[in-house]
Each structure stands twice: as C-alpha cells, then as structure tokens.
Specification:
By secondary structure, the chain is α/β, with parallel strands linked by helices. It has one domain (9-282): TIM Barrel, CATH 3.20.20. Helix content is 30%, strand content 15%. The protein has helices at residues 34-46, 63-77, 106-113, 139-146, 169-178, 211-222, 265-282, and strands spanning 15-20, 50-55, 85-88, 91-98, 129-133, 150-152, 182-184, 186-187, 229-230, 248-249, 254-255. Strands 1, 2, 3, 4, 5, 6 and 7 form a 7-stranded mixed beta sheet that branches. A two-stranded parallel sheet has the order 8-9. The chain starts with 14 loop residues before the first strand and ends with a helix.
Amino acid sequence: MTTTCFGDVTSSPGVLVASWYPPGMSDSEGEPQETIFLTLLNAAQRYDLKVAPHIEPYRDRNPINFSEHLRYFITRHGDHPALYRMRRGDKDLPVYYVYDSYLIPAGAWKEMLSAKGNLSIRGTQYDGIFLGLLVEMQHRYDIKKAHFDGFYTYFATNGFTYGSSWKNWRSLGKYSRQNGLLFVPSVGPGYIDTQVRPWNVANIRHRRHGKYYEVAWRSALAAHARVVSITSFNEWHEGTQIEPAIPRVISTFTYLDYEPEGPNFYLNLTRWWVNEFSNKLEK
C-alpha cells in the first residue's frame, strides 16, 4: 500500500507506506526485506518524500516481540529525516500502519499501547502513532480498547468489508472524532484480480473511467477524514495501480490500461483530489 512513487511525484501525496518485516523475515513468496526499507528511506529523501512502515503480520507476531522489533526499527531508522511523523501533543511521532491487527486480542495490544500496560511504549523513545486495521464493525471498539491511536480500512473494494464500504465512512468518522481516534479511509481506483484469482468475480469493481475513484474520494471527504490513504502502486495483479500504464499483453498476463484517457490519467486525477483534500483541510 503506497501513496506515491518516487518517479511519479506529480500525484503529490508526499508519503509512501511500505511493507516492513523484522530482520530475516518476509512473506511466503519473498526474500527478507528489512534492508529494502532503508533504501526506500534514502530514495524518498532525495525526492523530498516521507515513508511510513506497513507492519505486516509476520510469523508469531505478538505485542512482546513487536515491542522488541519496534526498538530495533527505531534504533535503525528513527533518526532518518524521511521517516514519516505526525504531531501528538508537543512531539512528532513515527506513524505505524499495523496490518491484520485484529489477529491479536485487544487486551494483549493494550499491554503495549496503553500508558499503564506492562509493555508500554507510551512516553518512551519508542512511542508512535499506531493505526490498526478496521475490517469489521466490532473492530472499532477493539481498536479503542487496545489503545491504538486510530485505524485505517486498507481494502480498495467498496462493500468487501464493513471498513471498506463507503456508506459506513461517515459513521466511522464520527466515531473516531468522538473517541479521539484518527480515521484513515483507504481509497482505490478500482479492483480486479481475476487473472490471479479466477474465483473472485464478485469483488470486481470497474474503474468506470475514474468515476469509482472519484466517489471514493468524495466519500472520504464527506467523512471529514484528516488523512486518506491510497491502496495502489505496483498492484497490477489486483488492478489497483495508478502509475502510468499503456496497453500491454504477455503470455501470462494482460496489463490493464486507462485508454482512452491516456497513461497518466490516474496520476493526474490523484493530484487533483489531493489538492481538493488539502484545500479542505486548510479551511
């Protein structure tokens, strides 16, 4: 999940959210990639961008080892000028998106994320802005109980989950404001993954020449969100990419393009909506 690409800065979101695993770990198909994160930070600095970690559900993740991995992360990256931070009180704290946070009980997270928890990182050099993943309606209560600082919705498919359903964003925005939480709705240009998941036809969301993307943005603005994430970039197999695209067919895959609008259509549309969003925040 990202909000920009180094070579395509015209879309102007300013922050990249990139997968992070502890040293020596990766997903089931990849190579250990902790070293890649430093490469991203260095590249982002050259383009005046920021990077935040998307904490993946690595093997046996729990608040005990996560707090240890958090210490490693801050020791290695905490002083990097490209690490994204947000203001809380009188401090600028790193922001962490915690994917599949609901796999760990709220009571266990509370030990790390509450000020009085036995593993508390609050008020220490390892403190941060921690965003849990909201999938089901119940998760909003779990996120509050766990003492997360807010939540994001991730999925680009309207109606796929409670959190990704645009019709629920107003109530989620209201709940977040009433409970001092940060609500980060996730928008996307569309969704189609049937070239790799042929059984998933029900979750196809056609782009409709940008209309799907625009409704997602309008829904986020109507919910009075202070931050919006874009689930995109390099997700060609799920059809959520917004980077430049031209017609391309190979033996194993057909790359979806944006014709007749042209290869930069979604970057330009993203730039327009980012400007709209920024202008609204300034009012």
